[in-house]
Amino acid sequence: MPQTILDRFARPLRSLRVSVTDRCNLRCQYCMPEPEYAWLPRETLLTLEETGTIVEAFAALGVDRVRITGGEPLLRRNLPVLIRQIAAMPAITDLALTTNGVLLAEQALALRQAGLHRITVSLDTLHRSRFEALTRFDHHAAVLAGIDAAGLAGFDALKIDTVVIRGVNDDELVGLIEYGRSVGAEVRFIEYMDVGGATRWTADAVVSQDEMLEVIAAHYGAVTPVGGRGSAPADRFALPDGTTFGIIASTTQPFCADCDRSRLTADGVWLMCLYARAGTDLRRPLRAGATEPDLVHLIRTVWSQRADRGAEERLALGRREPLIPLAALKKDAHLEMHTRGG
Ligand code: SAM
Questions:
Q1: In whole angstroms, what is the distance from residue 68 CA to residue 320 CA?
Q2: 169 Cβ closer than 6 Å to some ligand 1 atom
Q3: Most buried of 70, 123, 252, 313 (most Cβ within 10 A)?
Q4: Greatest Cα pair distance in the chain
Q5: Which residues 6+ apart lie within 8 Å of 308 measured at CB?
Q6: Residue 1 — very low, low, confident or very high, per pLDDT cuts 50/70/90?
Q7: Distance CA 342, CA 284 (A)
């Protein structure tokens, strides 16, 4: 029976985001806008087997939800091997993947067959030219094909994540809800966050949850909150016809008090918060011969000291700028959003 461990604010350790690569095949201007990046050294990347061993240790401590992310996780070779291993862990009741969808059409079936439960595809625009301006690649059609393929492969709880940026795609809220409805996916709008990597972030570019709701209600009529969010990041809402959508208001209405998430980078650094400056290296002890009980002990000790509430601390700042200056980001890949996963 898994244990439950609590941090210093009595938040349980329940959800783990596992980044399997820091590489990406897009260059989204809100995440990886720079021309050059320092990548994690190849020899430091966890093997799929090492990643599985670490996930086992988390599962023994009460983690029951795992999300595979990156970088772009579908760039990781043999990913279904890891999916199969995690899907077979009895403690894991929810196994999801976040992808930009570019390679999804060719991989959806294999992911399904490996036992993946759910897929979230990031899609910020319905316009091909806008997609290219935002990501620097002409892959819009591939992403749409990936979403279709996921449906055909049997993924029926599809989600679409959209980072809403003023002057970039804030005129597409209704269009994206309609598109989501047409493909059987729930859309979740994400407030633009000042995380590492978002070197072009400005407060003016953030479209708040309140503003989004106003625009959506002006088009559809009254929007009703759907309760029961629990520790999930999105507030969910229903349109008058029952169609639901979500908003992840991490910038203007942070939800640190309920945060049961932590993150594992592709090289085995465990981060307590998306805004954390540093993490705990799990790769070194593992490669030095730590057993699963050793890892369990280490994880329990670190989590019980956790007091992170990064998004709330950012909100409390009077004046906000990008979290990490570019020069500091260039020196430490672990500070980047694409290294720690979304
Ligand atoms: N490559 C995958 C993808 O595109 O979904 C997984 C990694 S990506 C870092 C995970 C999520 O983080 C994406 O939905 C992305 O839109 C989101 N993200 C990245 N930078 C962000 C920012 N500055 N503000 C809000 N969300 C961001």
A1: 30
A2: no
A3: 70
A4: 60
A5: 256, 259, 272, 273, 275, 276
A6: low
A7: 24
CA–CA dist 304, 318 (Å, integer): 30
- CA 132 to ligand 1 center in whole angstroms: 16
Q: Phi and psi at residue 315, in whole multiples of 5°?
A: -65, -35
For residue 342, the CA-to-ligand 1 centroid distance in Å is: 5
Cα 227 versus chain centre, distance: 22
Structure tokens given for 231: 């520790």
Atom of ligand 1 nearest to the CA of 194: 23
Q: Are 212 and 172 in contact (CB under 8 A)?
A: no
Helix, strand, coil fractions of the chain, as percent rounded to 5: 35, 15, 45
DSSP alpha helices (H): ranges in 167-226? 173-183, 209-220
Span 123-152, pLDDT tens digits: 999 999 999 999 999 999 999 999 999 999
CA–centroid distance, 123 to ligand 1, in Å, is 10
Q: Which of 21, 37, 98, 158 to mutate to test the pocket of ligand 1 (most atoms within 8 A of CB)?
A: 98
